[in-house]
């Protein structure tokens, strides 16, 4: 008989999942970003303990991977204080830009794990943030084929 039709005794065994990729960039975070990482890590540790107690092997595999990832991100986090000087765009600043189609947008430049463009935050390693860092109000910026202008820095 073919092995395709034989049920393994250990069919519910879940192997350890591979680690999530870790960014090669420095793990710069805002104060709020560090707090979010710590909260996520604590929540995942609790969920991991519950999965271990209940014997949920699939959840345990997933949660083990997440605990390793967030533990690593927590250990490597480098908090960058919100800048007091707003003369140039830098990590932690909120910057308002004008796009060549007339749209105005405001983004805060933050760490990779806290970035969410739909909520107004972008990673400091994103093409937009890299183009903006070091610019001043009134400076033109080109990102890809788009022309932007820095309108304000907070």
Protein architecture, described:
This protein is an alpha/beta fold and 154 residues long. The protein folds into two domains: 16-79; 94-153, Transcription elongation factor, GreA/GreB, C-terminal domain (Chitinase A, domain 3, Roll), CATH 3.10.50. Helices cover 32% and strands 21% of the residues. The protein is built from three helices and seven strands, in the order βααββββαββ. The protein has helices at residues 31-54, 57-76, 127-132, and strands at 28-29, 78-79, 94-99, 104-110, 121-123, 140-143, 146-153. The strands form two sheets. The protein has a five-stranded mixed β-sheet with strand order 5-4-3-7-6. Strands 1-2 form a two-stranded parallel sheet. β6 (140-143) and β7 form a beta hairpin. α1 (31-54) runs antiparallel to α2 (57-76). The chain is elongated and about 60 Å long.
Please provide a brief summary of the model.
The protein has helices spanning 31-54, 57-76, 127-132; strands at residues 28-29, 78-79, 94-99, 104-110, 121-123, 140-143, 146-153.
List keywords for this structure.
2 domains, two-stranded parallel sheet, Chitinase A, domain 3, five-stranded mixed beta sheet, 154 residues, alpha/beta, 32% helix, 7 strands
Q: How far is the N terminus from the C terminus?
A: 71 Å
The helix-and-strand class reads alpha/beta
Query: Helical region count?
Result: 3
Quick check: average pLDDT? 92
Strand content of the residues, in percent? Answer: 15-25%
């Amino acid at each position: 008989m073919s092995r395709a039709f034989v049920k393994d005794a250990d069919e519910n065994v879940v192997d350890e999942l591979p680690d999530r990729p870790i960014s090669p960039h420095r793990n710069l975070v805002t104060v709020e970003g560090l707090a979010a990482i710590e909260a996520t890590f604590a929540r995942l540790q609790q969920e991991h303990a519950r999965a271990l107690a209940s014997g949920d092997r699939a959840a345990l595999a997933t949660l083990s991977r997440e605990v390793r990832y967030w533990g690593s991100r927590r250990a490597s986090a480098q908090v960058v204080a919100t800048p007091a000087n707003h003369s140039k765009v830098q990590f932690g600043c909120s910057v308002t830009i004008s796009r060549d189609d007339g749209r105005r947008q405001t983004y805060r430049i933050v760490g990779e794990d806290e970035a969410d463009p739909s909520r107004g935050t972008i990673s400091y390693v994103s093409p937009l943030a890299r183009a903006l860092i070091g610019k001043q109000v009134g400076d033109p910026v080109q990102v890809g084929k788009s022309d932007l202008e820095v309108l304000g820095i907070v």
